[in-house]
Amino acid sequence: MMMKNGGKAMKRVWKAWVFGSVWVWSLFGAASWAEGSGDDFWAALQEGGKVVLIRHAQIDREFGDAFLLDSSCFSERNLNEDGKAQAKKIGEEFRAHGIQVDQVLASPHCRTQDTASLAFGEFEVMPELRLIRALPEEKAKANLQVTRQLISQFNGEGNLILVTHRPNIGELIYQRLQPGEMAVLEPLGSEPGDTVFDLIARYSVAP
């Protein structure tokens, strides 16, 4: 399977060290992004071995609780019709570009599960991708560390898809993704516990 906003992107390497309970991030590379056709995004995914962060598609902000988990989805914030179409478009673009997907993991919130399902069909829930603002600070930090290690150490032939939330993505790559927007990362970890990866490109299916 396969995935748009991108264009030519300056690479960034994110590295984390722990000093007590304080995370210190180091950024190497330029801070600007150029608009373009998304060629860098798709080319990276066609190579395989990448991780894609996806912010869930557009939601209905008039109803539901953004922090709540509800197995019926009734009380949560859910995708609106535009969001459902957006999620389907993500999957269509992946398939159109022939991108191989090894695994799709989604936050347990309904809006992320629905985005994953509409885009890719099969997926698994990863509790650590839950909205960090809905969690106590220490739990949020622990979940982010698990996610960083997962990204850094991925070594599949295809690509790993992580469907999560804007605050989580912001903490991982210091980028503010729009609903349905994606970022492709290159894992650079070589040792257990490494949290090093390269931000290659961003892409959005939104017009």
Fold and architecture overview:
The chain contains five helices and eight strands; from the N terminus they run ββαβαβαβαβαββ. The chain has helices at 39-47, 81-96, 110-120, 137-153, 166-173; strands at 12-19, 22-28, 51-55, 101-106, 124-125, 159-164, 182-187, 197-203. A hairpin with a 2-residue loop joins strand 1 and strand 2. Helix 2 (81-96) runs parallel beside helix 3. The longest helix has 17 residues, at 137-153.
Quick summary:
With 207 residues, the protein is α/β, with parallel strands linked by helices. It has 5 helices and 8 strands, in the order ββαβαβαβαβαββ.
Write the layout of secondary structure elements.
Elements: E1 12-19, E2 22-28, H1 39-47, E3 51-55, H2 81-96, E4 101-106, H3 110-120, E5 124-125, H4 137-153, E6 159-164, H5 166-173, E7 182-187, E8 197-203
Parallel strand pairs: 3-6, 4-5, 4-6
Antiparallel strand pairs: 1-2, 1-8, 3-7, 7-8
Helix pairs in contact: 2-3
InterPro entries: His_Pase_superF_clade-1 (IPR013078), His_PPase_superfam (IPR029033)
Protein name: Histidine phosphatase family protein
Organism: Hydrogenovibrio thermophilus
Strand content: 15-25%
Under the CATH scheme, which class? Alpha Beta
- Number of beta-strand segments: 8
Give the termini distance in whole angstroms: 21 Å
Overall morphology: globular
Organism: Hydrogenovibrio thermophilus
Protein name: Histidine phosphatase family protein
InterPro entries: His_Pase_superF_clade-1, His_PPase_superfam
Pfam family, one: His_Phos_1
